[in-house]
Amino acid sequence: MTTSQLTLEHRPFSFVPAVLVGVIPLAILIFLLVGYSDVPHHVHTIAQHFYIVSIASLLAGVVSLIVGVAGIRLRNLQVVLLALAFISLGIIFAMHGIATPGYIYGNTQISGVAAVLSLLFPCFWLALSSLDPHLPIMRWLAPRATLLLWTWTAGVLAFDALLLSMPNVADALQVFTFPVFPFVALLTLSFAGVAAWRFLQSYRYTRITLHFALFAAAIWLMISMLTIWLSPTWSLAWWEYHVLFLLAIGGVLVGLYQLYGRKASLAVIIGGHWNPDPVARLESAISPHIRELLELTEKHDPYTGGHNYRVALYALELGKAMSLSPEKLRILAQAGVVHDIGKLEIPYAILNKPGKLDPDERQIIEQHPVAGWMYCSRFGFMPEELEVIRHHHEKWDGTGYPDHLAGANIPLLARITAIADVYDALTSKRSYREPWDHFRARDFLLEGAGTHFDPECLNIWASITEKGPIELPPELER
To answer: Along the 478 residues of the chain, how does pLDDT read in single tens digits?
Structure first.
């Protein structure tokens, strides 16, 4: 990955792979519908359907639940919602396998109902996960992510148990009657279409494998719904959607692994959830991709080496002195390490100019909070982290940027990060000056009380730095 890869207009994009994702399985479906619709089924086929679908689906459901727990640990709403999508697919589709007609159960509607609902619910969650995290619905969901994960999982399991113990309930749902089935099918296609479009746009911007995998999964789920709608049971065309389900789940899991698991095991990510030390929690929660971005940021702006981590740690110390909750400390830590990621969009010559910036250059550099906010919003960052990224350059008197917020309208965690950010900038060597010592930087900050900084936050900062600077780990010392 290079710096230029982050800017959409700097990269050519071909729609050919995206088109092939849909055209190939659709062509196969048409071919099978036309030429192989009358292939009979046999007892051994029924048994294979029972075992393969049941086991594979339950395994997918369990893995998806683990991913959901990791998403909570990472404070990543998109990952949690994706987990809900594939928990729905895995657990409900397992019922499709368990209720295979002619194996344990007789001729009931359970298997068919499970197939349809294992498309409807995943497509709903996929569409929701593709939305911008600053939208009201996402802001409402973000603090309820843990409750949502466990409640939905329990609800899906209970629904499975209900249908398997009372098969007549599935018959009563009349899923395959008119107008119920066309309505459910169109609703599913609509959800999947929204998800496919939005994830394709995200992939064009980020070039992240996960986003393309999610686009492909949404397309394959759309084709699966068409397959259920058009193909006779047990025909070869009918089997295609089973394969597409597996491809969708597998592709997304590969994308998640590439983005979050290449350099840190799920065990480390999940285990860190219960670590009381916020610094240790910070280390365990940073995904490999974010680490790469941090390295790129510091290569792009070498004078800020270690800056992101120091800002996060300074903000943590101030937050602890203000008696913030562990959850708020997690937000400070994760937002702190990515607060300047938008600088990847700023030309190197401007970032490292040895002299004073002219007005045009100043205007360009002031775009980095919005650039970082936009980039991180595509990775499912929670709204609180996004607020810190966007607003850490706002000033108490309203003269900051990018939105000219003032006073208490500036989110508290952004006000805390602003103090940490300015202090570290002053005490670090820059292209245009030598670093200041601790007390000179501290005095400068105190002069900004009520104009640049929140006076209450600054008073607490002054008290914890009165005798000297906050101690840093050796690897972050300048």
So the answer is: 333 334 434 456 788 999 999 999 999 999 888 876 555 544 458 888 999 999 999 999 999 999 999 888 878 899 999 999 999 999 999 999 999 988 888 888 999 999 999 999 999 999 999 998 888 999 999 999 999 999 999 999 999 999 999 999 998 988 888 899 999 999 999 999 999 999 998 888 777 888 999 999 999 999 999 999 988 888 888 889 999 999 999 999 888 877 766 544 444 443 443 344 444 555 555 666 667 777 777 777 766 668 888 899 899 999 999 999 988 988 898 899 889 989 888 888 888 787 788 889 899 999 999 999 988 888 888 899 999 999 999 999 999 999 999 999 999 999 999 999 999 999 988 767 788 999 999 999 999 999 999 999 999 999 999 999 988 776 666 6
Point out the domain boundary residue: 222, 247, 269: 269
How far the first Cα of the chain sits from its last, in Å, is 27
Last residue of a domain, one of 220, 249, 269: 269
Omega cis (within 30) before 402: yes
| Distance in angstroms (rounded) separating the CA atoms of residues 459 and 472 | 21
Residues 252, 288, single domain; the answer is no
383 and 328 together in one domain: yes
Domains contained in the chain, number: 2
Q: In 39-104, which ranges are continuous DSSP H helix?
A: 43-73, 77-98
Same domain, 409 and 284: yes
72, two tokens: 């909570």
Residues 198 and 291 in one domain: no
Domain residues for the domain of 416 are 276-476
Q: Is residue 46 part of a domain?
A: yes
Report the distance separating Cα 411 and Cα 396, nearest Å: 11
Q: How many residues does the chain have?
A: 478
The structure's pTM equals 0.82
CATH number, residue 433:
1.10.3210.10
